[in-house]
Specification:
alpha/beta, 11 helices, about 50% helix, about 10% strand, 6 strands, DNA polymerase, domain 1, Rossmann fold
Amino acid sequence: MFEEYFHSGIFLSGLGIKALTFDVFGTVLNLAGSLTPVIERFLGEHGSSLDASKVWDQFRTRQRVEQYQDNLLMMGHSGYLQAVRRAFIYTLKLNGISFTEEEVDSFIESWKELTPFEDAAEGLRRLKGHYRLAILSNGEEWFLRHLAKNQIRFEFDDIISVQTIGVFKPHPAVYRTCAKILGNEPSELMMVSSNSFDVMGARASGFKAAWVRRHELPYEETEYEPTLTVRDFHELAALLT
């Protein structure tokens, strides 16, 4: 797909993109690489022989359930880190692992030390100046500003948190409100995400979208397909600059 787009100058020039909006967790920041070692230490301290990578997969699946439930119940937006907390507790209970609130707090604190993918950091630098670059993330605004400044170490043009909208992605209100904040038509924006549900949500809301397929996972069963599919930010930057 990359070669097809690379050689299609008409296609690229016709995209009409004015700004790129970036998912952070799992797209710019390496969640599994940063947090699986934390889970491995936690398991070791509790005498568990469970595979940390499998526990991580369980946790991430549950985290998404927590966020969807938050949207569906409409009882007030709880926030990203609260969804992380609930998912971690659920995963520990699922595996019969005892824990204290202090240990859960420690896991949440470790999220402040997330590290970026090397290709993401370089790709962002290459894209700078060609487009308006904005974070569009499920994270709380204070948390995103901390990560952008201290972990990603990149100055985005805008940081938009779903906290402003009151629902998690892929709710269409997130993408439509983002377009309003940026002052663009949805068709002038491209969502960049490794999460297929995010790409689907953006496309269904009128955005263009680049799926950074970091893992060999299938795409959603939907008519809302990615505009571009790339392996990493190197390919993304090569296509868009």
